[in-house]
Write a structure and sequence with these properties.
Elements (H helix, E strand, L loop, with lengths): L1 H20 L17 E8 L2 E7 L14 E7 L6 E8 L6 E3 L5 E5 L2 E10 L10 E8 L7 E2 L21 E4 L5 E7 L2 E7 L11 E3 L4 E10 L2 E8 L4 E7 L7 E7 L11 E5 L2 E8 L11 E6 L22
Antiparallel strand pairs: 1-2, 2-3, 3-4, 5-7, 6-7, 7-8, 8-9, 10-11, 11-12, 12-13, 14-15, 15-16, 16-17, 18-19, 19-20
Length: 322
């Protein structure tokens, strides 16, 4: 009997030692190296896979200003092993667009995938302010192929109650399948209901009143609460407000992510994947990073017992493998 107890104890020691020495793999920080540089993340989950959509900074080191012409798609089954699927959308896919492929947002609805993107409009008659307009491409799968869904912009400078800088679309499909598009910059935010066809507005453009809003809105829901997160101020933190309705009013809650070293922009995606909440953002931490050469990063997102979002703890490792 003593020998059996001894062998059992020894086995437990061996198992414990094996567990302690098992290597934990992490996603890394930033998520990818300099090729390509990635910025302005959006993410969605489809068939147990997380798909990451990003813009791409092409400015040379030391160049002042954004150079952005295309968007990428990446995917992962476990947050550590990523596949770069390459460029899946670019300025060339929109005949009406001229330049500046800024932050986009992809959403699933009606069995298709709708990728909303802002670009400067070619038509001078639509350019009243900054000239940005927002259109949408559609595909049957997150990896495409994508094509312009309607051959024209949905929102432009000439749209009633639009803003000086019509960028950063964030589209949300509600529980009752109603679709809303939020966007904004230069301290002004807007939203509009979309028709079932996903390419036309359904009603007037409405003003969003959110404290400290600067740009980069993102909508997600937890329980019966809507969370509107956004870049605040400039250089930007990420802050958020909450509401019991997609229409507001929005009650300010606080800061999620502090300002970033060497990157005045702060652009987030918030997603739940396999039971874990993630905060996806960009910074300038790559070897050749800078304000116009950004890279996507991922850290955990956590809530307190009252549903308040805790401030993100930025790490040098990223997140562990699922």
């Amino acid at each position: 009997m003593k020998s059996i107890k001894f062998l059992f104890a020894a086995a437990l020691v061996i198992i414990a030692a094996a567990c302690q020495t098992k290597e934990v793999k992490y996603s890394g920080h930033p998520l990818f190296d300099d090729n390509p540089l990635t910025a302005d993340p959006c993410a969605l989950v489809y068939n147990d896979t997380l798909y990451l959509f990003t813009g791409s900074d092409e400015a040379e080191p030391g160049h002042e200003g954004f150079v952005m012409k295309k968007w990428y798609v990446f995917s992962t089954p476990d947050m550590v092993n990523w596949t770069n699927h390459g460029v899946k959308l670019s300025l060339d896919d929109f005949e009406w667009a001229s330049h500046n492929a800024f932050a986009g947002h992809c959403v699933e609805n009606n069995g298709k995938f709708w990728w909303y993107v802002p670009m400067v409009h070619k038509d001078s008659t639509t350019r009243v302010h900054e000239g940005f307009a927002m259109g949408v491409a559609v595909a049957d799968h997150p990896l495409g192929p994508y094509k312009d869904a309607c051959g024209k912009s949905i929102i432009a400078d000439t749209t009633a109650n639009s803003i000086v800088l019509n960028i950063d679309p964030a589209v949300y499909v509600d529980d009752d399948k109603q679709v809303y598009m939020f966007w904004g910059s230069w301290n002004a935010a807007r939203y509009v209901k979309l028709k079932d066809n996903m390419v036309e507005t359904d009603g007037p453009v409405m003003t969003v009143d959110a404290k400290n809003f600067f740009e980069a809105p993102w909508i997600h829901k937890k329980g019966d609460t809507y969370y509107l997160s956004y870049a605040a101020h400039y250089p930007s933190t990420t802050e958020y407000s909450t509401s019991k309705s997609i229409h507001g009013p929005w009650e300010y809650q606080g800061v999620i992510n502090d300002t970033l070293p060497n990157s005045p922009t702060n652009h987030q995606a918030i997603i739940t994947f396999k039971g874990q909440d993630y905060f996806i953002y960009h910074d300038a931490s790559s070897k050749t990073g800078g304000p116009f050469r950004r890279s996507v990063c991922i850290d955990k997102l956590e809530y307190d017992e009252n549903g308040q979002i805790k401030k993100v703890v930025r790490t040098s490792t990223g997140v562990p493998q699922i």
